[in-house]
């Protein structure tokens, strides 16, 4: 069967490549695992959820920006953009450069966290070809050693060609892993850059609204939001008050 013969040939090639083929396979599994994980994790909602974008746009449309409502929106849509906006809201009342610095520090921290699982893929891009090259060098050394110690009359050219053929297997395998890994890492890094461009657009929208609070004192937005959530809704006239509630 041609298919079975091909599988056997690939397995034989793998075994002929030597023990360094196993680290190359391990690196390919790392690339596949972290590549799939990052493709799922780096969806657009991880950076700027649609609901968060719409909520911030509504809050900043007029002149009545409500920091408490913005804080509550950040709690409702946890994301990289929400973390940056929360850092800015925590500095409300402070000078604008201080708010901008808080936004930059938070963006760097969020970006570093999102880049963390791309680093193993980038490591595979660098290490896997070196493993292949190491296997090839080892195979070449063995091939020349075997050729040099052949008996008189043996076909040295054929033996050397066979040894070089086997030695190049690891280089081929290493490149087969490193090239897709480089493409995956490049694509994921581009996805992060595009996501943070959306975060920058949101920061540019929120910053002018926070400038109006400069020098007006700090706000404890977390406590204020919690107090707002605990406040019972007003009772319409003519209806009995809920138990424990007092009519103003």
Written description of the protein model:
By secondary structure, the chain is an all-alpha fold. The N and C termini lie far apart (88 Å). It is rod-shaped. The protein has one domain (19-227). The model is unreliable at 227-236 and 241-248 (pLDDT under 50). The protein is built from nine helices and no strands. It has helices at 2-16, 21-41, 50-59, 67-76, 80-90, 96-115, 119-148, 156-211, 221-230. α5 (80-90) packs antiparallel against α6 (96-115).
Strand content: under 5%
Count of helical regions? 9
Distance between the termini: 88 Å
Label the structural class.
Answer: mainly alpha
Alpha-carbon Rg, integer:
31 Å
**Major β-sheet profile:** none
Q: What's the count of strands?
A: 0
The overall pLDDT, averaged over residues, is 80
Topology summary:
Layout: H1 2-16, H2 21-41, H3 50-59, H4 67-76, H5 80-90, H6 96-115, H7 119-148, H8 156-211, H9 221-230
Keywords:
0% strand; 248 residues; 74% helix; mainly alpha; rod-shaped
Short overview:
This protein is mostly helical and 248 residues long. The chain has 9 helices and no strands. The protein has one domain (19-227).
């Amino acid at each position: 069967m041609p298919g079975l013969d091909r599988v056997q040939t690939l397995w034989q090639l793998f075994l002929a490549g030597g023990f360094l083929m196993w680290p190359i396979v391990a690196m390919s599994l790392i690339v596949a695992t972290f590549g799939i994980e990052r493709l799922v994790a780096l969806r657009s909602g991880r950076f700027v959820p649609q609901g968060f974008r719409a909520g911030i746009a509504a809050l900043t449309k007029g002149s009545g920006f409500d920091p408490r409502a913005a804080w509550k929106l950040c709690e409702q849509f946890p994301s990289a953009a929400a973390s940056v906006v929360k850092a800015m809201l925590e500095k409300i009342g402070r000078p604008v450069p201080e708010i901008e610095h808080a936004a930059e520090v938070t963006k760097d921290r969020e970006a570093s966290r999102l880049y963390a699982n791309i680093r193993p893929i980038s490591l595979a891009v660098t290490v896997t070809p070196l493993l292949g090259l190491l296997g090839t060098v080892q195979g070449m050394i063995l091939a020349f050693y075997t050729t040099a110690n052949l008996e008189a009359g043996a076909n040295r050219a054929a033996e050397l060609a066979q040894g070089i053929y086997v030695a190049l297997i690891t280089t081929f395998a290493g490149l087969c892993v490193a090239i897709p890994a480089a493409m995956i890492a490049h694509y994921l890094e581009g996805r992060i850059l595009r996501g943070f461009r959306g975060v920058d657009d949101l920061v540019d929208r929120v910053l002018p609204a926070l400038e109006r609070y400069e020098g007006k004192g700090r706000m404890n937005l977390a406590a204020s939001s919690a107090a707002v959530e605990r406040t019972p809704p007003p009772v319409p006239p003519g209806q009995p008050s809920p138990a424990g509630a007092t009519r103003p």
